[in-house]
């Protein structure tokens, strides 16, 4: 393969993000194809026995097995790393595979993790149930309370783990404050950036050590495949993450990697337009929601407690927000009144989707845990898509009216 148009790091690192999203991580075969090739192979052949021995010994470059390397997957990893401003990236089978690997690869019995209480339900399951099973201590804090991070540190604290914006409460973490604090104490920060993507927010610019993704969301952006990614320094990826990934196998398929790779070409356009639509829809909803006694959780609106912080960290505030309408009954009435917006628990899609987190994404947490993190019975989360904003507001107006709002 000709390693062109994306393999010269000295050149590609000088490109701006929009160019990297289209040109970064492009390898071409002898055929000179313009669209990146899809390599569907589990293994590789070698010219001679010494070549394969050298590759397995790490003394020669080249592919050995698709659990470890695949040309299509490698292109995706390079492109994400370039967009993120990271030295290295490893793609994963799903977003939760990425979160699990990012934590377990560096933690051992006796270590301590400080995590944000507002998080995706499965991420909280990792913190509340999985890690303690292996003797890893965990503390859950209000991530918007800057002082709480330092207060939670113990001599054995190894990792800070959080989302910003958080799912589904849209809590915003002060990235610079938390990352600076972590560095001062020798703690590794693991940031779930799925709600923003590198098109809208790059946590490493604020000092984050590791950035993890559900690439299923905005990176694919069209609800087609499952994928994940973990970004970090070359040293951390090669020495800490790779031994775990090599031997446990949370490997993304080449086909899924190719789909996400193509999705990245339009990521910035989609993310910014969906962000604009989300702000416009939020502005339409807020008077109706507050008049009915509910409240908005939208970092793009001035009413959000950390609106200014969100604007200082993000290029745009993303396609996702939440609003509380008081009761499950009212929330269900709104969902059932929708004609255009789909009821779905996915996010990041180019289509508008809405769900009731307490009965879907966070249903298995239990009522007490949901109450602790602010996932109330009346909370609705919406992913605002690329439809005409006039059609979206008409649909929401119809649904709110059906619920008596």
| Total DSSP E strands | 12
The CATH H-level homologous superfamily of the largest domain: Type I PLP-dependent aspartate aminotransferase-like (Major domain)
Would you identify the CATH architecture of the largest domain? 3-Layer(aba) Sandwich
How would a textbook summarize the main sheet?
7 strands, mixed
Topology order in helix (H) and strand (E) letters: HHHHEHEHEHEHEEHEHHHEHEHEEHEH
Number of discrete domains = 2
Our Rg estimate from Cα atoms comes to: 22 Å
Helical element count?
16
Q: Tell me, what's the shape?
A: globular
Structural commentary:
There is one protein chain. With about 400 residues, the chain is an alpha/beta fold. The protein has 2 domains: about 10-110 and about 175-265, Aspartate Aminotransferase, domain 2; about 265-400, Aspartate Aminotransferase, domain 1, CATH 3.90.1150. Helices cover about 40% and strands about 15% of the residues. It has helices spanning about 10, 15-25, 50-55, 70-85, 95-105, 120-135, 145-150, 175-185, 215-220, 235-250, 255-265, 265-290, 305-315, 330-335, 365-375, 390-400, and strands at about 90, 110-115, 135-140, 155-165, 190, 210-215, 230, 295, 320-325, 340-345, 355, 380-385. The strands form 2 sheets. It has a 7-stranded mixed β-sheet, sandwiched between helices. β2, α6 (about 120-135) and β3 (about 135-140) form a beta-alpha-beta unit. The longest helix has 25 residues, at about 265-290.
């Amino acid at each position: 393969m000709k390693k062109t148009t994306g393999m010269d790091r000295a050149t590609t690192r000088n490109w701006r993000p929009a160019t990297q999203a289209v040109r970064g991580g492009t390898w071409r075969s002898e055929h000179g194809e313009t669209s990146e090739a899809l390599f569907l192979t589990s293994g590789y052949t070698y010219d001679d026995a010494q070549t394969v021995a050298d590759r397995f010994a790490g003394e020669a470059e080249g592919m050995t097995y698709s659990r470890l390397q695949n040309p299509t997957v490698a292109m995706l990893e390079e492109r994400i790393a370039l967009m993120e401003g990271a030295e290295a990236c490893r793609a994963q089978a799903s977003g939760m595979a990425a979160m699990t690997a990012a934590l377990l690869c560096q933690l051992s019995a006796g270590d301590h993790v400080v995590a944000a209480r507002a998080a995706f339900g499965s991420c909280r399951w990792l913190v509340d149930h999985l890690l303690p099973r292996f003797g890893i201590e965990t503390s859950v804090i209000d991530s918007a309370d800057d002082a709480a991070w330092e207060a939670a540190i113990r001599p054995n604290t190894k990792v800070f783990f959080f989302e910003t914006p958080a799912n589904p409460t849209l809590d915003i973490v002060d990235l610079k404050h938390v990352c600076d604090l972590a560095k001062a104490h020798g703690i590794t920060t693991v940031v779930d950036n799925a709600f923003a993507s590198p098109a809208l927010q790059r946590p490493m610019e604020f000092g984050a050590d590791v950035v993890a993704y559900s690439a299923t969301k905005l990176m694919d952006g069209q609800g087609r495949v499952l994928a994940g990614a973990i970004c970090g320094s070359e040293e951390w990826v090669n020495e800490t993450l790779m031994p775990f990934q090599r031997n446990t196998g949370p490997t993304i398929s080449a086909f899924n990697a190719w789909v996400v790779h193509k999705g990245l070409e339009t990521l910035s356009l989609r993310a910014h337009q969906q962000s604009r639509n989300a702000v416009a829809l939020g502005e339409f909803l807020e008077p109706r929601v507050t008049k009915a006694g509910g409240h908005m959780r939208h970092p793009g609106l001035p009413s959000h407690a950390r609106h200014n912080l969100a604007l200082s960290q993000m290029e745009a505030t993303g396609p996702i927000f939440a609003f509380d309408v008081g009761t499950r009954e009212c929330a269900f009435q709104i969902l059932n009144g929708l004609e255009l917006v789909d009821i779905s628990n996915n996010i990041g899609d180019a289509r508008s989707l809405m769900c009731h987190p307490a009965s879907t994404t966070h249903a298995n947490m239990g009522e007490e845990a949901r109450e602790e993190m602010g996932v109330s019975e009346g909370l609705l989360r919406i992913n605002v898509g690329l439809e005409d904003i006039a059609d979206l507001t008409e649909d929401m107006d119809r649904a709110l009216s059906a619920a008596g709002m």
